[in-house]
Design goal:
alpha/beta, two-stranded antiparallel ribbon, 5-stranded parallel β-sheet
């Protein structure tokens, strides 16, 4: 039996009487160190500064937030070590339906009212599980993926591992996906589905297929999840990202609009909405979403250089170059210097667009690197746009050719065509498109999903 006198508890509940009741339960179990958090921000602060051993979190936290949202934020910002126990406390009998579907699950949940004995029984089971996976947790945290997979395989085949069979399979799939082996991750998720149709496992198949650029198959899998489990909001995020990759930006924005209304404080989702709206040409929605992120995502360190660049980009798209310039010039030079090359390139391009006098020299100074370096699709879009604005057609065409030959061609096609049209260069764009298609044929590229869909990536929207 665990010695709870040596465990640090954190009770998260917005109601004083409920917090006191949970404190009494914990102390009845032998706990000495029991801290309280009355709201979301207070809880984040305490967890960030001194991670507890056991968290008892009420599902309804007030102010439009839930314990599930908190768990997602903690996991995505790596604030919750695998060793920490996170138990959801709820009065909702229907919570079982929620937790059985979602991808980011608590270690356990308990329905109020409950006795100290019942809580202790639940905690003992979790402690045993944490001890069982302790070696794996350490290897995963250190990104020793080969060792982690070996540990999981050995544990899966052991007698002690029988109660944790599905959890072991799930962790194997996650490690494979994290290590870049999407094909094996797909196989692992499908092996789970052979035994039970967990929505999170089907979503895992969709993510694995997406990583392999098998977008139509990924879309079919995630559509099943979204249709069957409406409260699995992460599945909607996955669907939206797949839709964007397929060039269906209006559908992506529609999906995210609906889910964002139900989860107004999920700022990762707001960022995704801004991206979808930008690709869809809805500059006002993108600007509003990024303004909300910048103003209200108060997680320490949450607002990144990429977020400020996205905000400036949304303002440029909305025709407000003055506000974009203010955002960009408001960034400290040290922050700009610490950006990666993609971010520095986007910064220079966006500044050249919003304030040519101030931004063009920096943009021109980066030109050799912009030609020679591998960059992500979003950065290349910023560069080609700035190049078109400054009359550097060779640089713009180089970016366009690279984008149209990439796996992201469907995603960015509409944006590229729009920018060329705005500069009266539709014929030049069609010629680049034609040349990319010819090169594909000449090099005898293997079959791609875009061909099985009935058109090549560069040949769509003719």
């Amino acid at each position: 039996m665990a010695d709870y006198s040596k465990k640090r508890f954190l009770v998260i509940d917005d109601l004083p009487l409920a917090r006191e009741a949970l404190r009494i339960v914990a102390q009845t179990m032998g706990a000495f160190a029991v801290e309280f958090a009355s709201n979301y921000q207070d809880a984040i602060y305490r967890i960030r500064n001194n991670t507890p051993d056991i968290i008892l979190c009420d599902y309804m936290l007030g102010d439009g937030r839930s314990g599930q949202q908190m768990l997602e934020e903690l996991r995505r910002f790596n604030l919750l070590p695998d060793e920490t126990i996170f138990m959801m406390v709820t009065g909702e009998q229907s919570y079982e339906q929620v937790v059985s579907a979602v991808e980011l699950v608590p270690d356990d949940y308990i329905i109020k009212p409950f006795s100290p004995e019942k809580l202790m029984l639940r905690l003992e089971r979790i402690v045993a599980k944490k001890n069982f996976f302790a070696k794996y947790y350490k290897e995963k945290r250190q990104q020793e993926y080969t060792a982690a997979l070996a540990t999981l395989q050995a544990q899966r085949d052991s007698e002690a591992g029988r109660p944790y069979r599905f959890e072991t399979l799930r962790q194997q799939a996650e490690v494979l996906l994290a290590s870049g082996d999407a094909t094996s991750a797909e196989t692992s998720y499908r092996s789970i589905l052979e035994h039970y149709d967990f929505p999170w496992a089907r979503a895992g198949v969709a993510r694995s297929l997406q990583k392999q650029n098998r977008l139509s198959e990924a879309r079919a899998e995630i559509d099943r999840v979204v249709a069957g489990v409406p409260h699995f909001f992460d599945a909607a995020d996955i669907k939206a990202s797949i839709c964007m990759a397929q060039g269906e930006h209006a559908e992506a924005q529609k999906v995210l609009d609906e889910v964002a209304k139900k989860t107004p404080r999920n700022y990762l989702r707001k960022r995704l909405l801004a991206e979808a709206a930008t690709l869809n040409g809805d500059s006002e929605t993108a600007r509003a979403a990024m303004a909300d992120v910048i103003a209200n995502d108060t997680m320490p360190g949450a607002i990144s250089a990429a977020d400020r660049l996205a905000a400036a980009r949304s303002q440029i798209n909305a025709g407000d170059k003055i506000s974009a310039e203010r955002v960009l010039l408001g960034m400290r030079e040290s922050e700009v210097q610490n950006m990666n090359l993609d971010e520095q390139a986007s910064f220079a391009a966006l500044l050249a667009i919003s304030s040519p006098e101030k931004g063009k020299p920096r943009f021109l100074g980066l030109r050799p690197a912009l030609i020679a370096t591998a960059l992500n699709a979003g950065t290349r879009l910023d560069i080609l746009r700035a190049a078109l604005d400054t009359g550097d057609h060779p640089l713009a065409d180089r970016q366009t050719e690279t984008l149209m030959a990439s796996e992201e061609a469907k995603k960015v096609f509409g944006s590229i065509r729009t920018h060329y049209a705005l500069h009266g260069r539709e014929t030049d764009f069609r010629e680049i498109q034609k040349q990319v298609a010819l090169k594909r044929i000449q090099h005898h590229d293997g079959p791609t999903e875009t061909k099985t869909d009935g058109n090549t990536a560069s040949g769509q929207h003719q």
